[in-house]
C-alpha cells in the first residue's frame, strides 16, 4: 500500500462504517476506509474508537462499554498501549486472511496468534441485548457478557472469533472487495463464489458509476 496521508476520525463521532465481513474478526480488520487512496481513513483513531466499534458490532454491552471508557480516561497510558496492541492484532489477522485467500502457507503467522490465544480468558456467558440498544441493525442479538474491567476486553471477542474462523470451512470462502478504493475482506457465501463487492449499496454503486463515467469519456474521446 502506498504511503498517503491518513485522516483521523473524530473520537466523538458515531460509528460510520457498515459491517460487511460476515465475522466479527473480519469486521475488525475492515476498519480502514478507502485504503491506499488520498481519502484513506483509519477508523481506529484511539482506544475510544475501538470501544465504539465494539458497542456497534455487539461485542460489548453498553454497561461494559461505559465502564471501560471511564477506566480509559483514568488510565490513558494503559488504554493507549491496548490501542497499539489492537492495531498490531489487526495487521496480523489481515496478513492471515490474505495468506488464506491467496493459498499461501499461513504457518509462519500461527505462532504469534497462538501466543495471543494462550493468554486469553475463557469466553464469558452470553446475554441477549434488546432491540434498539446501539447495534447497527438495532434488532435483538446475543452478545458476550464481558465485565468491563480489563482494558483488553474489546480484543478478546476478536481473538475468539479469529480462532473460530481459522478452524472453519469459511477460510475457503474468503473474498476481497474488487472496488478500486476498497480491500475489505468478507466471507463469500454465494454458491459460485461470485461476490465481488463488500457492499452493493456502497462500493458496488460507486464502482458502477465510476466505470460508466470512464466509458462515457472514452466514447467522447473516440468521437473527437
The count of β-strands is 7
| CATH C-level category | Mainly Alpha
- SSE-based structural type: mainly alpha
The number of helical elements comes to 7
State the distance separating the first and last CA atoms.
37 Å
The helix/strand order is: EHEEHHHHEEHEEH
Q: Radius of gyration over alpha carbons?
A: 19 Å
Average pLDDT taken over every residue = 84
In what order do the strands lie side by side in the largest sheet?
Answer: 1-3-2
Unreliable sequence segments: 1-13
What would you note in describing this structure?
The chain is mainly alpha-helical. The chain has one domain (7-223): Jann2411-like fold. It is 45% helix and 9% strand. It is built from seven helices and seven strands. Helix 2 (47-57) runs antiparallel to helix 3 and helix 3 packs across helix 4 (76-102). The two termini are 37 Å apart.
SSE topology:
Elements: E1 7-8, H1 24-29, E2 32-33, E3 41-42, H2 47-57, H3 62-74, H4 76-102, H5 110-118, E4 126-129, E5 141-144, H6 156-166, E6 174-176, E7 185-187, H7 200-223
Parallel strand pairs: 1-3
Antiparallel strand pairs: 2-3, 4-5, 6-7
Domain Zinc finger CGNR: 174-214
Protein name: Zinc finger CGNR domain-containing protein
InterPro entries: ABATE, ABATE_dom_sf, Znf_CGNR
Essential attributes:
mainly alpha; Jann2411-like fold; two-stranded antiparallel sheet; 9% strand; Znf_CGNR; ABATE; Zinc finger CGNR domain-containing protein
Explain briefly what this protein structure is.
With 224 residues, the protein is mainly α.
Amino acid at each position: 500500500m502506498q504511503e498517503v496521508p491518513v485522516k483521523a476520525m473524530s473520537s466523538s463521532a458515531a460509528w460510520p462504517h457498515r459491517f460487511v465481513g460476515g465475522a466479527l474478526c473480519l469486521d475488525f480488520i475492515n476498519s480502514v476506509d478507502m485504503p491506499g487512496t488520498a481519502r484513506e481513513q483509519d477508523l481506529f483513531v484511539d482506544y475510544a474508537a475501538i470501544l465504539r466499534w465494539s458497542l456497534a458490532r455487539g461485542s460489548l454491552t453498553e454497561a461494559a462499554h461505559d465502564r471501560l471508557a471511564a477506566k480509559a480516561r483514568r488510565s490513558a497510558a494503559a488504554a493507549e498501549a491496548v490501542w497499539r496492541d489492537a492495531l498490531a492484532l489487526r495487521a496480523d489477522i489481515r496478513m492471515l486472511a490474505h495468506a488464506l485467500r491467496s493459498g499461501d502457507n499461513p504457518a509462519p503467522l500461527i505462532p504469534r496468534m497462538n501466543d495471543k490465544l494462550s493468554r486469553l480468558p475463557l469466553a464469558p456467558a452470553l446475554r441477549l441485548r434488546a432491540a434498539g440498544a446501539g447495534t447497527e441493525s438495532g434488532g435483538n442479538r446475543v452478545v458476550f457478557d464481558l465485565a468491563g474491567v480489563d482494558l483488553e476486553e474489546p480484543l478478546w471477542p476478536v481473538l475468539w472469533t479469529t480462532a473460530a474462523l481459522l478452524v472453519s470451512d469459511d477460510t475457503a470462502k474468503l473474498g476481497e472487495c474488487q472496488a478500486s478504493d476498497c480491500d475489505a475482506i468478507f466471507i463469500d457465501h454465494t454458491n459460485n463464489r461470485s461476490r465481488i463487492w463488500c457492499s452493493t449499496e456502497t462500493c458496488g454503486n460507486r464502482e458502477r458509476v465510476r466505470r460508466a463515467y470512464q466509458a462515457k469519456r472514452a466514447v467522447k474521446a473516440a468521437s473527437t
